[in-house]
Amino acid sequence: MPAYHESIMRDEVLHYLNIHKEGVIVDGTLGDGGHTEFILKNTAPGIRVFAIDRDPSAIERARERLSPFQGRVTLAHGNLADIKDLALQNGISQIVGALMDLGVSSPQLDTPQRGFSIQHDGPLDMRMDPSQKISAADLLINLSDAELASIIKNFGEERYSKRVVRSIRKEQAERPITTTSQLSRIVARVVVSSRHSRIHPATRTFQALRIAVNDELEQLKLALQGVIGLLSSTARLAVISFHSLEDRIVKTFFRDEQKGCSCPPKMPLCVCGGKPTLKILTRKPLTPSEEEVARNPRSVSAKLRVAERVYV
Ligand SMILES: C[S@@+](CC[C@H](N)C(=O)[O-])C[C@H]1O[C@@H](n2cnc3c(N)ncnc32)[C@H](O)[C@@H]1O
Q1: Tell me, what CATH number does 19's domain have?
Q2: What is this structure's pTM?
């Protein structure tokens, strides 16, 4: 069994969530349950956690870890995008805080059969929820050249996206692409990392495919919209993102919700009637300390943003 995922910035998350004596916290990305466990250990017994993950194996691992907190924790298999419906189905209409720790967990990355990792050979899968229909291998077959290049360019920020697609098509003309090591070799033929970079040349292509397979950016937008309706007054929302695409979505959402009004800047009076719903508490995102990055190199690109619910 792979080691537990090491929870990122857990002291900072706990501090910023500013949890009082009772109520429900939503952990929208349960993973190995590390943040949930830390919250439950460090808060009053009146605090309960409602936790969601789209990966059923994450739920099973976390269930065991969280068994000492029976009665204080409810786990649900589902998508963060459906956060409001999932909460309501579980009798929760108001929460006192929410955490979204985005991306993949260490067990997902470290289990070769899940197909997320460049380091381990496995099937080219990348589905967080294995009941989803489309895997990364399917995308390579089903997408047009232009669609694939656009995904690799936009979700991977890969400047050589067209070259990557040509290399993929050349291989597919000879044999199907079915494994992670095969894809990483194909990409490394045409993308060269700079001499000082420790990043594998296929990292950006893998990121792009993972985001596309799991529709991560659209799900994040829906999740942010959904959670607003659950947060009670002064409840806080903490989001940890791992790449600039996610962080931009969170930053823009927080800024728009703090502003409320969406009228064009030249409009002398507000006609849209939009009211602020959030107050931003982290003008700049928090990042892990040097000690944390040394202890857990996977935390290096993490950014934590926090906002507080306001009702005007
Ligand atoms: C970084 S891990 C969370 C780790 C966790 N905070 C811990 O301390 O163990 C992210 C988890 O979120 C899940 N996830 C990502 N996007 C999701 C979504 N849209 N809906 C539900 N779960 C999601 C992944 O399956 C993964 O288990």
Answers
A1: 3.40.50.150
A2: 0.97
